[in-house]
Design a protein that fits this description.
This protein is α/β, with parallel strands linked by helices and 222 residues long. It is 32% helix and 19% strand. The protein is elongated, with a radius of gyration of 22 Å.
């Protein structure tokens, strides 16, 4: 998979993409990250990428030329092009699973007041990571990258590591315990210690269902 980021601040990605699972995925040759400063594709004398909105109003609007030119330079056959936008479809685990099978993903990360509407003609998906507004799309694209890359086969050491994650099964994940068996008066449930895998799976399913009912009952409605 190749993940391309159209951004005015490529330096924001350096630490995240070179750490932990994302770094490991690159070292294994499973994923490659391509940082593109679309300011380099501006057609103005001073590499200007924004301008005042027609009709007036507060803030500046991202111009179409730098983004279109950057996409032309990429020249990808059939990429999944994601516009990070508070108005977009909410990001979830199902979308992460869908994206994990793509060959090329392009994140368009804006700043300023908004995008020139014509930029949306380049896009396959408009995505939001929550009902709030960030300064730009970079942090949101990093969040999505982490959620997607860990689902690609071969990235995690054990594929089962993500198959029972919260939301992958439609419910929240069951509780986990490790050593010591007793800590400050709190005990590990006996069922996890008896070696009966059938009972353990039943317990985990019941706990997952209970936790979902208590914390996110809306998931059960779906």
């Amino acid at each position: 998979m190749n993940i391309h980021y159209l951004t005015l601040f490529p330096e924001m990605y350096e630490g995240v993409l070179n750490t932990s699972i994302l770094k490991r995925a690159k070292e294994k040759g499973i994923v490659d990250y391509n940082l593109i400063n679309f300011r380099d594709y501006s057609e103005s004398k001073h590499n200007k990428v924004d301008d005042y909105p027609y009709g007036g109003g507060a803030g500046m609007v991202l111009k179409p030329e730098p983004v279109f030119n950057a996409m032309d330079a990429l020249d990808l056959a059939s990429p999944r092009v994601i516009l990070m936008c508070p108005q977009g479809q909410p990001f979830n685990q199902k979308m992460a699973e869908s994206l994990s099978g793509e060959d090329d993903i392009v994140f368009i990360c804006g700043h300023y007041e908004g995008y020139d509407e014509r930029i949306r003609t380049l896009v396959t998906d408009e995505v939001s990571i929550g009902d709030y507004v960030l300064t730009g799309g970079e942090l949101a694209s990093m969040t999505m990258t982490d959620a997607v890359v860990r689902l690609i086969p071969g990235v995690l050491s054990r594929e089962e590591s993500h198959q029972e994650d919260s939301f992958s099964t439609g419910m929240l994940e069951h509780p986990h315990y490790t050593r010591p068996r007793e800590y400050r008066g709190m005990q590990v449930p006996d069922v996890l210690l008896n070696g009966n895998h059938k009972l353990i799976e039943e317990w985990r399913y019941e706990q997952s269902l209970m936790r979902t009912r208590e914390r996110r009952p809306d998931l059960l409605d779906n």
